[in-house]
Write a structure and sequence with these properties.
The protein is of the alpha+beta class. It contains nine helices and seven strands. The chain has helices at about 5-10, 20-25, 50-65, 75-95, 130-135, 145-150, 160-170, 180-185, 235-240, and strands at about 30-35, 40, 140, 175, 195-200, 215-225, 250-255. Helix 3 crosses helix 4.
Length: about 260
């Protein structure tokens, strides 16, 4: 399903003679689905992973959370096409240049038949503060803190927001951890962090997959909350990557060997 216009839009055009034809063709291989997994993108050689990996991540997210089927891995060609188009649109809509004009997409949610207004504050009071977890996956950019606080009906005066930025992000890293945010503004709520959740690993290179079949590797992540040598699993790069967010995480894969990042 190679398309020149789409390829140039995603990867850009060759920058003159500074880059050889062979390398540039390798980098702009296009999007090719695996024959072993309906929604798995295959990568022929090293190079285009900088584009393929984030597209694959968004695609998997949309397939898992936007699929009404009980088994999300069963996907028809038409369904796959729709998910893929949705994924590229979602990425490109958020990748605009800073100096470009603002835009707004006017749509109705699938379950709504009439126009109306929806707000984050329409949720029950007991669920206040949980929406930002879904939006930012545990991290709130400090540039969006004012918007999040306003959406949650918190004091959102710029001066107060700056005070909160300094308090919640004293090192000036530009991100605010969800745990600190919830502890500051919703201390009475119990943590919504799950003790365990499914994880999916994907590597688009055939040679890095078992039997050279490009497929998802499924496993279970367990958040311990403390280090327990009795349940230590492995020390793979995948685990070390996840430990940057969950220091005491253990991974149990459904296969005999841990997936490869190479």
């Amino acid at each position: 399903m190679y398309n020149i216009e789409l390829s140039e839009l995603v990867w850009g055009r060759r920058p003159g003679n500074e880059l050889g034809d062979t390398i540039f063709r390798r980098w702009t291989q296009g999007f090719v689905f695996s024959q072993s997994e309906a929604t798995s993108l295959e990568q022929f050689e090293g190079g285009p992973c900088a584009v393929i990996a984030p597209v694959q991540a968004f695609l998997l997210k949309n397939v898992v959370f936007g699929n009404e089927k009980q088994n999300w891995r069963e996907c028809t060609e038409e369904e796959r096409k729709n998910f893929f188009c949705l994924t590229l649109c979602e990425i490109l809509e958020t990748a605009r240049l800073k100096h470009s004009s603002p835009f707004c997409l006017v749509t109705l949610p699938r379950d709504r038949k009439q126009e109306g207004h929806a707000s984050i504050s329409d949720q029950p009071e007991s669920s206040q503060g949980s929406e930002e977890e879904q939006l930012y996956n545990g991290f709130i950019p400090d540039t969006l803190l004012e918007d999040v606080m306003r959406a949650l009906d918190l004091v959102s005066d710029p001066e107060y927001v700056n005070i909160m930025k300094n308090k919640l992000d004293p090192e000036g890293l530009g991100i605010i951890l969800l745990g600190k945010f919830r502890q500051e503004f919703f201390p009475e709520q119990e943590s919504t962090i799950q003790d365990s959740f499914p994880v999916y690993h994907h590597n688009g290179l055939k040679q890095s997959n078992h039997n050279e079949k490009v497929m998802y590797v499924e496993g279970t992540a367990v958040i311990m909350g403390f280090e327990d040598p009795m349940v230590r699993t492995d020390d793979t790069p995948v685990k070390r990557c996840l430990q940057t967010k969950w220091p005491y995480i253990e991974l149990m894969w459904n296969t005999d060997r841990s997936p490869s990042l190479n």
